[in-house]
């Protein structure tokens, strides 16, 4: 606390000094401006008196000249204040103007094709991808794999292997450097980003909620859904259990980013939103990471119902979450080192088998021979 208090005091002191310096400069500027305008009025008065006494100019003309002079001085004074306010506003708007001037890194094609996505086949064809901050070493190089329509694929491997990046590339949050990503044989770069994303239900590591009611947050999955449909979906996602206990039920405001809910509650709401969307492709990136084991079992039942007949890409560090997948892909340093079913990968005694041994207590030989105990563990 003392450390942060000192930092805060130093920061406010710097701001105070800057404001003090600015105030002095403003006073100097206004003093000079007052001196100039008042000097102008005094000169006008002296010249008017001289013209009246020496050259016999009418006093009415003198009064008219002084009146015009005062009006001009007033306008000049207002103009200086306007210029100062404009200058301050331009300074305040500089950063926002720079942000607005940034060109988006991912753009829609000039003439996008019509999205014909219904089966949900996903293919990465010889994909090479560099992070913008590391253009010397690609994360993916010649990455090539296909996910069949309706196939359920789990992505596992150590952190930094590229699992989440694959989902971001599929959703076109970033663009690849070489190769092609297709959905139902259509390159996603030929489609509008909104069309691609409208066919993918995505649940990220960090559940994204808006400062709206729970009803509205779930409805973002399908805006024309009725209240009855939303409540039915919430029951499937086991979100109804805690929603009904809240004072205002489905009308409860969740706060910015859902701060009024626990991590597990937020994930249930986001899962309900994905279930409501009913998209042909489902992407789950650590979708059950914030749930306890008992809740995860319940949610997995709902997710299996959701994945039925859909293409599913599931990222999970808990291998129990993905052991029933049709295929498991092991990613290490941006490369596919292994792929196959849970039982096949255990039989190979490779990277996946080692990960499973770590999480299941090391009884790899028993588990490799019979997957029944795996589910118990």
Give a quick set of tags describing it.
10 strands, elongated, 377 residues, 13 helices, 4-stranded antiparallel sheet, 6-stranded mixed sheet, alpha/beta, disordered C terminus
Topology:
Elements: H1 2-55, H2 59-100, E1 122-129, E2 140-147, E3 152-156, H3 163-170, E4 178-183, E5 186-187, H4 193-198, E6 200-203, H5 214-219, H6 227-236, H7 240-243, H8 263-277, E7 281-285, H9 293-307, E8 311-315, E9 327-332, E10 335-340, H10 342-348, H11 351-360, H12 364-369, H13 372-376
Parallel strand pairs: 3-8, 3-9, 6-7, 7-8
Antiparallel strand pairs: 1-2, 1-4, 4-5, 9-10
Helix pairs in contact: 1-2, 6-8, 8-9
Distance between the termini: 44 Å
Order of helices and strands: HHEEEHEEHEHHHHEHEEEHHHH
Radius of gyration: 34 Å
Strand content: 5-15%
Mean pLDDT across residues:
84
Number of strands: 10
Shape: elongated
Strand arrangement across the biggest beta sheet: 6-7-8-3-9-10
Secondary-structure content class = alpha/beta
Helical residue percent?
A: 40-55%
List low-pLDDT spans: 362-377
User: What is the count of helical runs?
Assistant: 13
The main β sheet shows up as: 6 strands, mixed
Question: How would you describe what is shown here?
Answer:
This protein has 377 residues and is an alpha/beta fold. It is 50% helix and 15% strand. The strands form two sheets. The protein has a six-stranded mixed sheet, sandwiched between helices. Strands 2-1-4-5 form a four-stranded antiparallel sheet, with no helix packed on it. A hairpin with a 2-residue loop joins strand 9 (327-332) and strand 10. The longest helix has 54 residues, at 2-55. It is elongated and about 115 Å long. Mean pLDDT is 84; it is low at 362-377.
């Amino acid at each position: 606390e003392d450390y942060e208090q000192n930092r805060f005091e130093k920061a406010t002191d710097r701001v105070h000094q800057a404001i003090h310096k600015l105030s002095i400069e403003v006073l100097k500027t206004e003093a000079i401006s007052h001196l100039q305008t008042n000097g102008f009025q005094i000169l006008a008065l002296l010249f008017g008196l001289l013209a009246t006494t020496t050259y016999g100019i009418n006093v009415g003309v003198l009064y008219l000249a002084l009146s015009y002079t005062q009006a001009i001085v007033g306008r000049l004074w207002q103009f200086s204040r306007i210029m100062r306010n404009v200058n301050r506003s331009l300074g305040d708007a500089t950063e926002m103007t720079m942000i607005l001037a940034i060109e988006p890194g991912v753009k829609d094609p000039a003439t996008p094709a019509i999205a014909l996505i219904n089966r949900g086949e996903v293919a990465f064809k010889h994909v090479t991808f560099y992070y913008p901050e590391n253009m010397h070493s690609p994360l993916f190089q010649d990455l090539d794999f296909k996910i069949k329509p309706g196939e359920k694929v789990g992505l596992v491997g150590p952190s930094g292997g590229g699992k989440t990046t694959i989902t971001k590339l599929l959703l076109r949050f970033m663009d690849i450097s070489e190769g092609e990503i297709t959905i139902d044989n259509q390159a996603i770069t030929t489609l509008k980003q909104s069309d691609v994303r409208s066919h993918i239900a995505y649940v990220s590591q960090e559940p994204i909620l808006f400062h709206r009611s729970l009803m509205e947050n779930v409805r973002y999955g399908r805006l024309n859904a009725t209240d009855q449909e939303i409540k039915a979906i919430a029951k499937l996602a086991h979100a109804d259990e805690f929603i009904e206990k809240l004072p205002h039920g489905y009308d409860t405001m969740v706060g910015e980013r859902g701060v009024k809910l626990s991590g597990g509650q937020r994930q249930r709401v986001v899962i309900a939103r994905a279930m409501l969307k009913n998209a042909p492709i489902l992407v789950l990136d650590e979708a059950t990471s914030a749930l306890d084991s008992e809740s995860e079992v319940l949610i997995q039942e709902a997710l299996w119902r959701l994945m039925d007949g859909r293409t599913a890409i599931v990222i999970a560090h808990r291998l129990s979450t993905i052991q029933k997948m049709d295929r498991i892909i092991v990613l290490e340093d941006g490369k596919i080192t292994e792929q196959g079913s849970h039982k096949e990968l255990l039989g190979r005694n490779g990277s996946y088998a080692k990960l499973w041994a770590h999480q299941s207590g090391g009884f790899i030989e028993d588990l490799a021979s019979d997957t029944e105990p795996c589910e118990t563990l």
